[in-house]
Amino acid sequence: MSTAVQTAPERHATPYAAVLRTEARLFRREPGALFWVVAFPQLLLIILGSIPSFRKPDDGLGGLRLIDLYVPVLVLIALVMIGLQTMPTVITGYRERGILRRMSTTPVKPSALLGAQFGLNGAAALVSALICLTIGRLAFDVALPRQAFGYALALLLTAAAALSLGALVTALARTAKVAQAIGTGIFFPSMFCAGLWIPVKAMPDLMAHIVVLTPFGAAASALDQAFAGAWPSWSHLGVLAGWAVVLSAAAARWFRWE
Protein backbone atom coordinates (compact mmCIF):
# COMPACT_ATOMS: atom_id res chain seq x y z
CA MET A 1 0.00 0.00 0.00
CA SER A 2 2.83 2.38 0.86
CA THR A 3 4.36 2.02 -2.61
CA ALA A 4 1.14 3.09 -4.24
CA VAL A 5 0.84 6.17 -2.05
CA GLN A 6 4.35 7.33 -2.95
CA THR A 7 3.84 7.05 -6.71
CA ALA A 8 4.81 10.28 -8.42
CA PRO A 9 1.92 12.32 -9.82
CA GLU A 10 1.13 11.73 -13.45
CA ARG A 11 2.29 14.26 -15.99
CA HIS A 12 -0.02 17.28 -16.29
CA ALA A 13 -1.86 16.17 -13.11
CA THR A 14 -1.80 18.19 -9.90
CA PRO A 15 -0.35 16.46 -6.82
CA TYR A 16 -3.76 16.45 -5.17
CA ALA A 17 -5.44 14.83 -8.20
CA ALA A 18 -2.75 12.16 -8.37
CA VAL A 19 -3.08 11.33 -4.68
CA LEU A 20 -6.87 11.34 -4.94
CA ARG A 21 -6.80 8.80 -7.78
CA THR A 22 -4.34 6.59 -5.91
CA GLU A 23 -6.28 6.72 -2.66
CA ALA A 24 -9.53 6.02 -4.51
CA ARG A 25 -8.03 2.84 -5.99
CA LEU A 26 -6.77 1.75 -2.57
CA PHE A 27 -10.13 2.55 -1.00
CA ARG A 28 -11.94 0.31 -3.49
CA ARG A 29 -9.53 -2.52 -2.68
CA GLU A 30 -10.49 -2.50 1.00
CA PRO A 31 -13.60 -4.72 1.10
CA GLY A 32 -13.75 -4.61 4.88
CA ALA A 33 -14.01 -0.81 5.00
CA LEU A 34 -16.54 -0.75 2.16
CA PHE A 35 -18.68 -3.36 3.90
CA TRP A 36 -18.93 -1.51 7.21
CA VAL A 37 -19.57 1.85 5.57
CA VAL A 38 -21.74 0.99 2.56
CA ALA A 39 -23.28 -2.44 3.28
CA PHE A 40 -23.62 -2.84 7.05
CA PRO A 41 -26.17 -0.02 7.65
CA GLN A 42 -28.33 -1.35 4.80
CA LEU A 43 -28.22 -4.92 6.12
CA LEU A 44 -29.17 -3.70 9.58
CA LEU A 45 -32.03 -1.71 8.05
CA ILE A 46 -33.34 -4.82 6.27
CA ILE A 47 -33.10 -6.88 9.47
CA LEU A 48 -34.92 -4.27 11.57
CA GLY A 49 -37.52 -3.67 8.88
CA SER A 50 -38.25 -7.41 8.79
CA ILE A 51 -39.39 -7.33 12.43
CA PRO A 52 -43.22 -6.97 12.36
CA SER A 53 -43.38 -4.76 15.47
CA PHE A 54 -41.03 -2.25 13.82
CA ARG A 55 -43.58 -1.74 11.02
CA LYS A 56 -46.57 -1.01 13.28
CA PRO A 57 -47.55 2.58 14.17
CA ASP A 58 -46.85 3.48 17.80
CA ASP A 59 -49.10 6.00 19.54
CA GLY A 60 -46.26 6.79 21.93
CA LEU A 61 -44.20 7.94 18.95
CA GLY A 62 -46.94 10.11 17.49
CA GLY A 63 -48.18 7.42 15.15
CA LEU A 64 -44.75 6.78 13.68
CA ARG A 65 -43.26 3.32 13.29
CA LEU A 66 -39.94 2.34 14.80
CA ILE A 67 -38.54 1.75 11.32
CA ASP A 68 -39.38 5.39 10.50
CA LEU A 69 -37.15 6.48 13.38
CA TYR A 70 -34.35 4.07 12.63
CA VAL A 71 -33.69 5.12 9.04
CA PRO A 72 -32.08 8.45 10.13
CA VAL A 73 -30.17 6.54 12.82
CA LEU A 74 -28.77 4.07 10.30
CA VAL A 75 -27.76 6.95 8.06
CA LEU A 76 -25.58 8.11 10.96
CA ILE A 77 -23.93 4.73 11.39
CA ALA A 78 -21.91 5.10 8.19
CA LEU A 79 -20.64 8.49 9.36
CA VAL A 80 -19.66 7.09 12.76
CA MET A 81 -17.90 4.16 11.08
CA ILE A 82 -15.99 6.49 8.78
CA GLY A 83 -14.97 8.89 11.54
CA LEU A 84 -13.97 6.39 14.21
CA GLN A 85 -13.02 3.13 12.51
CA THR A 86 -11.93 3.69 8.91
CA MET A 87 -10.08 6.96 8.36
CA PRO A 88 -7.99 7.08 11.57
CA THR A 89 -6.46 3.63 11.08
CA VAL A 90 -5.50 4.41 7.49
CA ILE A 91 -3.77 7.72 8.22
CA THR A 92 -2.05 6.54 11.40
CA GLY A 93 -0.87 3.49 9.44
CA TYR A 94 0.74 5.84 6.91
CA ARG A 95 2.40 7.78 9.74
CA GLU A 96 3.53 4.59 11.44
CA ARG A 97 5.25 3.34 8.28
CA GLY A 98 6.92 6.70 7.61
CA ILE A 99 4.89 7.43 4.47
CA LEU A 100 3.84 10.89 5.63
CA ARG A 101 7.43 11.82 6.47
CA ARG A 102 8.69 10.72 3.05
CA MET A 103 5.81 12.46 1.26
CA SER A 104 6.74 15.75 2.92
CA THR A 105 9.97 15.82 0.87
CA THR A 106 8.12 15.45 -2.47
CA PRO A 107 5.74 17.71 -4.41
CA VAL A 108 2.93 15.54 -3.02
CA LYS A 109 2.43 17.12 0.39
CA PRO A 110 0.82 15.18 3.25
CA SER A 111 -2.00 17.73 3.26
CA ALA A 112 -3.01 16.41 -0.18
CA LEU A 113 -3.31 12.93 1.31
CA LEU A 114 -5.45 14.22 4.18
CA GLY A 115 -7.69 16.11 1.77
CA ALA A 116 -8.12 13.02 -0.39
CA GLN A 117 -8.98 10.89 2.64
CA PHE A 118 -11.54 13.42 3.86
CA GLY A 119 -13.13 13.66 0.42
CA LEU A 120 -13.29 9.92 -0.26
CA ASN A 121 -14.57 8.95 3.17
CA GLY A 122 -17.13 11.73 3.23
CA ALA A 123 -18.38 10.76 -0.24
CA ALA A 124 -18.66 7.09 0.77
CA ALA A 125 -20.72 8.00 3.83
CA LEU A 126 -23.05 10.20 1.78
CA VAL A 127 -23.52 7.43 -0.81
CA SER A 128 -24.37 5.05 2.02
CA ALA A 129 -26.95 7.54 3.29
CA LEU A 130 -28.61 7.75 -0.12
CA ILE A 131 -28.74 3.96 -0.42
CA CYS A 132 -30.26 3.70 3.06
CA LEU A 133 -32.95 6.26 2.23
CA THR A 134 -33.72 4.46 -1.03
CA ILE A 135 -34.07 1.05 0.62
CA GLY A 136 -36.21 2.52 3.39
CA ARG A 137 -38.55 4.07 0.84
CA LEU A 138 -38.83 1.17 -1.58
CA ALA A 139 -38.81 -1.74 0.87
CA PHE A 140 -40.57 -0.34 3.95
CA ASP A 141 -42.48 2.69 2.67
CA VAL A 142 -40.48 5.07 4.85
CA ALA A 143 -41.14 8.64 3.79
CA LEU A 144 -38.30 10.61 2.29
CA PRO A 145 -37.18 13.75 4.17
CA ARG A 146 -39.92 16.35 3.73
CA GLN A 147 -37.44 19.18 4.33
CA ALA A 148 -34.80 18.17 1.80
CA PHE A 149 -32.58 21.26 2.11
CA GLY A 150 -32.59 21.13 5.90
CA TYR A 151 -31.81 17.43 5.80
CA ALA A 152 -28.91 17.96 3.39
CA LEU A 153 -27.48 20.74 5.57
CA ALA A 154 -27.73 18.61 8.71
CA LEU A 155 -26.13 15.67 6.92
CA LEU A 156 -23.21 17.78 5.66
CA LEU A 157 -22.61 19.25 9.13
CA THR A 158 -22.75 15.75 10.60
CA ALA A 159 -20.18 14.56 8.07
CA ALA A 160 -17.94 17.49 8.99
CA ALA A 161 -18.24 16.71 12.70
CA ALA A 162 -17.63 12.97 12.17
CA LEU A 163 -14.55 13.53 10.01
CA SER A 164 -13.22 16.12 12.47
CA LEU A 165 -13.64 13.59 15.26
CA GLY A 166 -11.73 11.07 13.15
CA ALA A 167 -9.00 13.65 12.56
CA LEU A 168 -8.67 14.18 16.31
CA VAL A 169 -8.35 10.43 16.89
CA THR A 170 -5.69 10.40 14.17
CA ALA A 171 -3.84 13.25 15.89
CA LEU A 172 -3.83 11.57 19.30
CA ALA A 173 -2.94 8.02 18.18
CA ARG A 174 0.66 7.12 17.43
CA THR A 175 -0.13 3.83 15.71
CA ALA A 176 -3.00 2.22 13.84
CA LYS A 177 -3.69 -0.14 16.77
CA VAL A 178 -3.95 2.76 19.18
CA ALA A 179 -6.26 4.59 16.75
CA GLN A 180 -8.46 1.52 16.52
CA ALA A 181 -8.58 1.23 20.32
CA ILE A 182 -9.51 4.89 20.78
CA GLY A 183 -12.07 4.70 17.99
CA THR A 184 -13.68 1.61 19.49
CA GLY A 185 -13.85 3.28 22.92
CA ILE A 186 -15.76 6.23 21.44
CA PHE A 187 -17.79 4.15 18.99
CA PHE A 188 -20.36 2.61 21.33
CA PRO A 189 -21.20 5.84 23.23
CA SER A 190 -21.57 7.52 19.83
CA MET A 191 -23.96 4.81 18.69
CA PHE A 192 -26.02 5.28 21.85
CA CYS A 193 -26.17 9.04 21.31
CA ALA A 194 -27.20 8.49 17.69
CA GLY A 195 -30.15 6.43 18.96
CA LEU A 196 -29.18 2.95 17.80
CA TRP A 197 -30.54 1.25 20.94
CA ILE A 198 -33.11 3.88 21.95
CA PRO A 199 -34.16 6.54 19.41
CA VAL A 200 -33.51 10.02 20.80
CA LYS A 201 -37.20 10.86 20.44
CA ALA A 202 -38.07 7.91 22.70
CA MET A 203 -35.50 8.73 25.42
CA PRO A 204 -36.52 10.19 28.80
CA ASP A 205 -36.48 13.99 28.74
CA LEU A 206 -33.36 14.47 30.88
CA MET A 207 -31.39 11.91 28.90
CA ALA A 208 -32.52 13.42 25.60
CA HIS A 209 -31.48 16.94 26.70
CA ILE A 210 -28.00 15.64 27.50
CA VAL A 211 -27.65 13.50 24.37
CA VAL A 212 -28.52 16.34 21.98
CA LEU A 213 -25.44 18.21 23.21
CA THR A 214 -23.25 15.53 21.63
CA PRO A 215 -22.52 15.64 17.88
CA PHE A 216 -24.41 12.49 16.96
CA GLY A 217 -27.29 13.17 19.33
CA ALA A 218 -27.73 16.61 17.76
CA ALA A 219 -27.43 15.02 14.33
CA ALA A 220 -30.12 12.43 15.08
CA SER A 221 -32.52 15.12 16.30
CA ALA A 222 -31.82 17.43 13.36
CA LEU A 223 -32.33 14.64 10.83
CA ASP A 224 -35.56 13.58 12.57
CA GLN A 225 -36.90 17.12 12.32
CA ALA A 226 -36.03 17.36 8.63
CA PHE A 227 -37.68 13.98 8.03
CA ALA A 228 -40.87 15.30 9.62
CA GLY A 229 -40.88 18.36 7.38
CA ALA A 230 -39.58 20.98 9.80
CA TRP A 231 -36.39 22.97 9.41
CA PRO A 232 -33.79 21.47 11.78
CA SER A 233 -33.48 23.41 15.02
CA TRP A 234 -30.74 25.98 14.82
CA SER A 235 -29.58 24.81 18.23
CA HIS A 236 -28.94 21.32 16.84
CA LEU A 237 -27.20 22.71 13.76
CA GLY A 238 -25.18 25.01 16.01
CA VAL A 239 -24.08 22.05 18.15
CA LEU A 240 -22.93 20.20 15.01
CA ALA A 241 -21.07 23.21 13.65
CA GLY A 242 -19.51 23.92 17.04
CA TRP A 243 -18.26 20.35 17.42
CA ALA A 244 -16.85 20.40 13.88
CA VAL A 245 -14.92 23.61 14.59
CA VAL A 246 -13.65 22.54 18.03
CA LEU A 247 -12.65 19.03 16.95
CA SER A 248 -10.91 20.20 13.78
CA ALA A 249 -9.03 22.90 15.71
CA ALA A 250 -7.91 20.35 18.31
CA ALA A 251 -6.84 17.95 15.56
CA ALA A 252 -4.80 20.66 13.85
CA ARG A 253 -3.21 21.59 17.18
CA TRP A 254 -2.05 18.07 18.06
CA PHE A 255 -1.55 16.48 14.66
CA ARG A 256 1.97 15.29 13.87
CA TRP A 257 3.28 14.10 10.52
CA GLU A 258 5.82 11.79 12.15
TrEMBL record:
The chain crosses the membrane at residues 33-54, 69-91, 112-136, 148-169, 181-200, 235-255. One of its GO terms (biological process) is response to antibiotic. The keyword Transmembrane helix applies. The keyword Transmembrane helix applies. It comes from the Bacteria. Residues 32-258 form the ABC transmembrane type-2 domain. GO terms for molecular function: ABC-type transporter activity. It is found in: Cell membrane; Membrane. Signal peptide: none annotated. Its main location: membrane. It holds the Pfam family ABC2_membrane. GO terms for cellular component: ATP-binding cassette (ABC) transporter complex. It is a multi-pass membrane protein. Keywords: Antibiotic resistance, Cell membrane, Membrane, Transmembrane, Transmembrane helix, Transport. Belongs to the ABC-2 integral membrane protein family. This is Transport permease protein. The lineage of its organism: Bacteria, Bacillati, Actinomycetota, Actinomycetes, Propionibacteriales.
